[in-house]
């Protein structure tokens, strides 16, 4: 939103489309938009956690980490599980530390290792040596990992190379691949179409089931089969439930958060925001905010559902959708760029907070924690974040005068990317490249059709049908993490064939150790970055011809 970033863009540099950061309005903005996401999906927590049995890999990993120290099982097994978790935690942490030494420049280090060749690397097919994604692959169901890999092959292996050949025909030949007037538009909008098709289908299905159950006044008995449990089916009243799961379900449903609190809280916070946000952003009219809060629960469900399957929160994707919709609605002359960016902030806050809360509910479900206590703790933590986050940003913003400028120590590349998205948004969807919208319609319909086929076919057939939501993620991001996840899935598959009892007992502990160790390493890595301690080595890979040119330039050949 700042003037500094606006000067780097191509247009929309007038005062109506600029708002420089200030600590006061940033804290106020976060307090207005951050809490509403906590209320959005509370009424659906039983459906998401108990009925659908969504895995929420990060929440599950956290739960196993906690249960490793407070397990109800035998002390002998508990000690072995904790020892296994600790072993892989240490390995993952020091592997991250080791990798850091080779990341002295852009595209350096093991995370940019072209394991499948340079051409595959250029199309984002490579193993990036990430313990986190290997661990996530060990936790996620097989069908999720296979779906993600299939999505990567379909998009980066087939579609994007074919569309790239249409450069000059479907979109201008002088554009970079990252331009949203070019190839990037296909990546972003087709992935959004798949996500919305899958998420809206499941939202409507849940809504219909809920209404039917209320009218008939009998317990819901769904015949749908969603591939989120160990055997690929949803929990029903006839399914055998272990003693541990009985205790978890009983505890999870005992300490209820009243629905009146959820609905009332959502309406109250929405009303305050609708009345107050236009005071911060005069260009953001009250009816824009009202529409955002009406559709936000649907998008929050889509994001929480996808996060439960794959551990990926696609809040930024829904934020991009808000940029285009509200920016186009407002128009450039009415501050459409600022409206799009503000609406993006509102939407991202709602859908990401709802997804994070559901992750925490999953952790609470597995650790027998009180859902009501967790909700209250989340409210307290959100309030702290509304103050701490802007203060940290303000510290950087004031300490580094050139922050956000290209080529500096802190270029903040997403700032210019999001502003350019907003500029594109004020031109409307008509500015998208040729056939992009048509492909979006096709993939939106395909997502709904695939889900219908899954629900209408027997389990022995449907368990092999991929998930559109999982397939959509690599469309935009790339396939590198899909290969990591697939490797984790393959490791678990082989382990189960060799010793299923041991895999069931220690698989989650191994996965949790890999995820947590890699995550904890980011803390000292951040401290090193703030202290301006640079890695000593850059490990980069070049083709033979490029290497010959470099050697010739340096006089080494």
Automatic annotation (TrEMBL):
GO terms for cellular component: membrane. Keywords: Membrane, Transmembrane, Transmembrane helix, Transport. Signal peptide: none annotated. Its main location: membrane. The chain crosses the membrane at residues 23-44, 85-102, 133-158, 261-281, 287-309, 321-354, 374-397, 436-453, 473-495. Pfam families: OPT. Coiled coil: none annotated. It is found in: Membrane. It comes from the Eukaryota. It is a multi-pass membrane protein. GO terms for molecular function: oligopeptide transmembrane transporter activity. Belongs to the YSL (TC 2.A.67.2) family. NCBIfam families: OPT_sfam (TIGR00728). This is Metal-nicotianamine transporter YSL7. It comes from Zea mays (Maize). The lineage of its organism: Eukaryota, Viridiplantae, Streptophyta, Embryophyta, Tracheophyta. The gene is LOC100272237.
């Amino acid at each position: 939103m700042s003037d500094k970033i606006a000067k780097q863009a191509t247009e929309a540099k007038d005062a109506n489309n600029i708002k420089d950061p200030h600590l006061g309005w940033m804290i106020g903005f976060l307090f207005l938009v951050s809490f509403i996401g906590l209320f959005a999906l509370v009424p659906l927590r039983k459906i998401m956690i108990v009925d659908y049995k969504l895995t929420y890999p990060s929440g599950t990993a956290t739960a196993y980490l906690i249960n490793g120290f407070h397990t109800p099982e035998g002390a002998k097994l508990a000690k072995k599980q904790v020892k296994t978790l600790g072993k892989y935690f240490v390995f993952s942490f020091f592997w991250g530390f080791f990798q850091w030494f080779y990341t002295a420049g852009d595209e350096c280090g093991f995370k940019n290792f072209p394991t499948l060749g340079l051409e595959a690397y250029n199309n984002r097919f490579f193993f990036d040596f990430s313990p986190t994604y290997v661990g996530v692959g060990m936790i996620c169901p097989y069908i999720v990992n296979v779906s993600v890999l299939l999505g990567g092959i379909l998009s980066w292996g087939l579609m994007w190379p074919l569309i790239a050949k249409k450069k000059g025909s479907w979109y201008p030949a002088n554009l970079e691949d990252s331009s949203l007037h070019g190839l990037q538009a296909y990546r972003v909008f087709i992935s959004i179409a798949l996500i919305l098709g899958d998420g809206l289908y499941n939202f409507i299905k849940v809504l219909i089931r809920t209404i039917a159950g209320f009218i008939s006044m009998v317990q819901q008995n769904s015949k749908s089969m969603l591939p989120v449990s160990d055997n690929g089916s949803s929990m029903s009243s006839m399914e055998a439930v272990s003693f541990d799961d009985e205790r978890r379900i009983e505890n999870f449903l005992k300490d209820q958060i009243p629905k009146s609190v959820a609905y009332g809280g959502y309406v109250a916070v929405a009303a305050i925001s609708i009345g107050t946000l236009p005071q911060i952003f005069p260009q953001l009219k009250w009816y824009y905010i009202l529409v955002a809060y009406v559709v936000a629960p649907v998008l929050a469900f889509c994001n929480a559902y996808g996060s439960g399957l794959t551990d990926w929160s696609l809040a930024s994707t829904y934020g991009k959708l808000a940029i285009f919709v509200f920016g186009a609605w407002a128009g450039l002359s009415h501050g459409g760029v600022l409206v799009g960016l503000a609406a993006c902030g509102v939407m991202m806050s709602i859908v990401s907070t709802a997804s994070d809360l559901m992750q925490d509910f999953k952790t609470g479900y597995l650790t027998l924690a009180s859902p009501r206590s967790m909700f209250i703790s989340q409210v307290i933590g959100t309030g702290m974040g509304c103050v701490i986050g802007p203060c940290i940003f303000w510290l950087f913003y004031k300490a580094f005068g050139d922050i956000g400028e290209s080529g500096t120590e802190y270029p903040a590349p997403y700032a210019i990317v999001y502003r350019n998205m907003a500029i594109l948004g004020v031109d409307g969807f008509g500015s998208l490249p040729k056939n992009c919208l048509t492909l979006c319609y096709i993939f939106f319909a395909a997502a709904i059709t695939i889900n219908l086929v899954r629900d209408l076919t027997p389990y022995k057939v449907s368990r092999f049908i991929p998930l559109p939501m999982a397939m959509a993620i690599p469309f935009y991001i790339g396939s590198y993490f899909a290969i990591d996840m697939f490797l984790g899935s393959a490791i678990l598959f082989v382990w189960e064939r060799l010793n299923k009892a041991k895999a069931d007992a220690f698989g989650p502990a191994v996965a949790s150790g890999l995820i947590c160790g890699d995550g904890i390493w980011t803390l000292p890595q951040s401290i090193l970055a703030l202290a301006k301690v640079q890695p000593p080595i850059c490990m980069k890979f070049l083709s033979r011809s490029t290497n010959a040119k470099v050697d010739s330039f340096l006089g080494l050949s």
